[in-house]
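=== Structure Prediction Worksheet ===
Name of assembly: unnamed complex
Input type: mixed (protein and possibly other molecules)
Chain count: two
Listed entries:
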Amino acid sequence: MYLIGEFHDEGALIAAIRGLRANGVEPASIDLFSEEPVELPRGVLDRPSRLSLVSVSGAILFGVFATLFIWWAQRNYRLDTGGMPVFSFWATGVITFEMTMFGAILAAFGWFLWESGLIRARDPGAPVPTVDPGSICLRVHCREDDVHEVSDSMRRAGAVHIGRGAS
Amino acid sequence: MTGSVIYLYLPLIPDMAQLAEHNTPWRRRLYRALSLGWTGSDREWRALERAMKLMACIILAVAVSVHTVVAWDFAMALAPMWHSTIFGPYFVAGAIFSGIAALIVAMAIIRRVLGLELYLARGHFDRLCKLLLLMSLLWFYFTMAENLTVWYGNEPKEMAVFGSRTRAHYAPYFWTMVVLNWAIPFVLLGIRRLRTIRNATIASVCVLIGMWIERFVIVVPSLANPRLPAASGFYAPTWIELAITAATFAAMAMLYMIFAKLFPIIAVWEFKPHPQEDD
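=== Predicted Assembly ===
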């Protein structure tokens, strides 16, 4: 069961989220819908992210791959370097750097798609509210037994409208 | 290229989700596919903002490296007046300089043609003008540093190129470049009273022409006065080369117009109308 509360005031929204969290509703069960990003104070509805970590990992992976590939190619397809080293890290540093950045970009974009949920399977029954300009909708996933409690919590906080959605 | 396309695509996603609701059928299909089912949830917004911040940092590093590598292609050639350690930062500064100029010209045209006076306000132009002025001064400093050391060093092969640039065959190009890239922006953007949107556009067009001439001045005199005297000569473009150059400009303009026709030219969710201002 989904409940959707509509708010016109950010303070009321924050109070509603705090009330729901105090009643035991998990952050994973709460979603906000708005026409533009909503800045909430730290601790209200944090969404931990691993984007930076994944991006750095992608950069290291591609950087190491590029270095090894260059090393392999220069050893196996030897050029006459006139006594200079066959493999030179600094001479191919530009390629390594570009590949490192390429890895960071691909990893960041891929993780953005995953973390935002755009490429993940969604609950087909989860309603997506139509948000009017200036309003913010709070969608809560709850059990049938908790509907009244969640609904009261949102109304007390200042929701201007509360509706039900299919589960 | 991949990074730039992704960086351009990210802020378009929320707008394309809105465009998918009210449009012709084929456009609806296009925007729906490109918006990837964006719903406007806080998870999506937060992930988008984080990704945009991260991509901005990565793109900055890539932009510096890309322009530096182009400069190193010249600097490692041992040709007179190319073999310079400041070519990397010189090219990076030049790219930012001409990039800001192109941005101001595009903004001025879009503002006028699409009637976006409330979104692209005078304050935006004013701040970009200050940045353009800063880059103009930086460009002048680099140009001075580059040419002064060559002149003072008095190395014969380099002086042949330096002389052809500043006093002989290619002098009109060189001095036109200095006037367009430094003198005109310095006057139009440095004096607050003159810093209007129209003058900013004029200065930016001058910078774009000046930066094109800069590439000509870097490439042609060095190739026309190489280290082997037998290969010396003069260069003037043929009509074929002029046509190819014109075609590249036309192709770029066409691609930009197609993009402006299909996609929001400013991110709607990021911009709010500004109070009406006088130019």
